[in-house]
Amino acid sequence: MSQSVRAYKGITPTIDPSVYVDEASVLVGDIHLAKDASIWPLVAARGDVNIIRIGERSNVQDGTVLHVTRKSPSNPEGFPLIIGDDVTIGHKAMLHGCKIGNRVLIGMGAVIIDGVTVEDDVIVAAGSVVPPNKTLKSGYLYVGNPCKQARPLTEAELAFLPQSADNYVRLKNEYIEELTND
């Protein structure tokens, strides 16, 4: 096990063989990375007091922080972090105890807090802050602090969401190929 992937209380992250995890990232505890996901430099993900699940073809870009909220008597499930398929999470985003649907783009520096649900096919603009327990409805762009629904996504934006994820699948494959050639 590398220094970037660490057990916590005997639970080690589970990582599909097709996944790229940069050696300058840190993954701790109950984290599952599905097929073709990628974790880029300086990502910190702690599945220590609840679970983190990252779906197929999703990418978590440089400097992002992923964390969860523990279970408690007042919140028996706590707030796990669940990220769907084909999700692009921009540089330095912070996701804490939220649920992200499929084909979502989280802009650079966005902050998404406990109990938030982001439905499928959503863009959260760079720098946006999504307050606790908010639901972002499918098919819209959300902007601001606190974030607000700005407008429906265009056909081009909807088409870009899986394309963005695919771009990162190709990039992580290039990185893996280069590592195996060294």
Automatic annotation (TrEMBL):
Question: Where on the tree of life does the source sit, at the highest rank?
Answer: Bacteria
Its name, as the record gives it, is Gamma carbonic anhydrase family protein
Native organism is Shewanella maritima
Concerning SUPFAM superfamilies, the annotation shows:
Trimeric LpxA-like enzymes
Task: Give the lineage.
Answer: Bacteria, Pseudomonadati, Pseudomonadota, Gammaproteobacteria, Alteromonadales
One Pfam family named in its UniProt record: Hexapep
